[in-house]
Amino acid sequence: MQEKPKLNLDKSMAMFEEAKRISPGGVMGIRRPYNFVEGEYPIYLNHGYNGHIVDVDGNDYIDMLCAYGPIILGYNEPEINQAVIEQMEKGFCFSLVQQIQNELIKRVINIVPSAEMALLVKTGSDATSVAVRLARGYSGKDKILRHGYHGWHDWCVEVPGGVPTAIQELTLEFPYGDLEALEKLLKENKDQVAAIMITPIGHPLGQPVSAPPEGYLEGVRSLADQYGVVLIFDEIRTGFRVAMGGAQERYGVTPDMTTIGKAMANGYAISACVGKSEIMKVAEKDVFISSTFFPNSLEMAASMKCIDILEREKVLDNIWERGSKFLVRLKKIVADSGVPATVSGIPPMPFVTFDKTDHQYKQRRTRFYTETIRRGLFIQPYHHWYISYRHTDEDLDYALQVIEESLAVISKIY
User: Fold this and answer.
1) How far apart are CA 401 and CA 136, in angstroms?
2) Could you tell me if 247 and 237 are in contact, meaning their C-beta atoms sit under 8 angstroms apart?
3) I want to staple 128 with a disulfide (CB 3.0 to 4.6 A). Which of 89, 150, 189, 244 is the partner?
4) What does the pLDDT look like over 16-26, one tens digit per residue?
5) What element of type H or E holds 84?
């Protein structure tokens, strides 16, 4: 199998050079080029349609990163666009709330098993930070035990620069799937822990996502009850994707609080913290939460319409069905390639990890993602992929063809 020539990315690279002169790093966080393959991936996009994105140089890609998760349907959805326009014509930023807030909250409460009350915010980091503040206010305790990525705020940030040591010491991490390690932390910090926050389908960044080990979520629930600790599921990724009500619905374990976001509005900036009324009600007077933009209603209109489409079209059933077939075929392709790699994930969220069998695993990974992007498949080396509703069967067939060809290139080199 021949290596593919490099794409023309001249405009994207020129814009990035300009950006670095006017903004720290040019672009922020996980979007920086070193999180992909430097010099091979576009940095600036022009537009998206269905399950595709097009960069400023005109290169068209099948997008299986889906904006890191918000795009559950596809890009440029007409029904959502129209709902937002109709809300825009009423006005959308008053700081006082509009009727649509109640409508959306009632809908969320009906969908998410742990939701008795809800607070609507904007980002995943907003929602997880609200959940932590409520848990601390409710319990009168300070420490948080966590597994997973929960955003960029001080209480949980993984890169500690700029975060006071005193704050860092209040959050302790435990490994996914290890109940003994979690209980050890609970014992060592007895009567000091406000909450356990866990991403219910384990996904440390850079490692494969996997379904919960049998009995694991039930065990976490039991330990939280035993030690009198609030259990929070961070379902920013998994809500409205693994099931409408998230992983807690699919796997039958209900936490005390939940954070949701990403797929609930197909790309619009909205998230929510939901949970038991007795915990949520501390926000009435004991805990302060406020933002000028939390009540903005365009995102709420987008979410209402997105949920309409998810329910009407049985979108998640469709994604699970096609994703299941995709995973079966992906596993065969990887196995047949002879490349030391492991397929993991659940149908809506597949991933391939390059096994650390020797010192060349990083080179294999880099070459793989170089070949896939050159062939027009946009996936990320350190983050699981997504299947969206607007990915056609032809898109998914081509994605698998690209993966097969890229592995064939690797097998010849390494």
Assistant:
1) 50
2) no
3) 150
4) 999 999 999 99
5) helix 78-88
